[in-house]
Amino acid sequence: MAISAAFPGGIGPLTIRSGDYVWKKLRGWDVGEPEAYNLAFSRLHLYDGGVYDNLGIEPLFDIGKQCIKKDDTLRDQLTYLLVSDGGAPLPRQTIPHPLNPFRFKRIADIALDQSRALRVRAFVSFLQQQPDSGAYLGIGADAQSSIRRFRSGKEAVAASLLAGKWLQAEQAREAAGYDTTLSKMPTAGFDLLALHGYETAKWNIELMEASVRPCADAESRS
Prior knowledge:
Layout (H helix, E strand, L loop, with lengths): L1 H4 L8 E4 L6 E2 L9 E2 L6 E4 L14 E2 L4 E2 L12 E5 L16 H28 L4 E5 L4 H7 L5 H8 L6 H8 L10 H20 L8 H7 L1
Parallel strand pairs: 7-8
Antiparallel strand pairs: 1-4, 2-3, 5-6
Helix pairs in contact: 5-6
């Protein structure tokens, strides 16, 4: 939690001296037993995933080819990729004055948001071509308008979903913009986030079916 809440531009949240530990590494994914491994650096600096890959999909999804990665060392190939994105939308606001210390933070937020957006666009583009291969769960969108937007070809399922009770659009926006702090979360705030997350997963998954085409198969059919 401390790493996630830290400000990467000014605070190095956690540093590990590699010599204090014994390190082991597998030769491949789920292959054999871990073997002794010497790190190339005396210190490791751990940061929140938002600095590099906030979605955490790079090990499983090829951004360039826009397809599920195929790893011959895996016992069972992936059949469905579900991406949960809890990142708050970047608020629209002016960049602070050059002498304002928050100017750097605003610029860094823009850069990190664009890095995340590129990964999201690639994955969503993949889903548009293969809609039954997974789902992207992004917070902030209200269920009712989203179901109507993506109901083409799945009208019966959409009609069933729309018959249920959902959070209003302003409640979904409130959940997406909920402040991240180290303070104790009130019960009402927790319930709002939990319900919005549940609804986002429900309407997405129920509009999708599970089938996937790995990279090698996609290339052979193109």
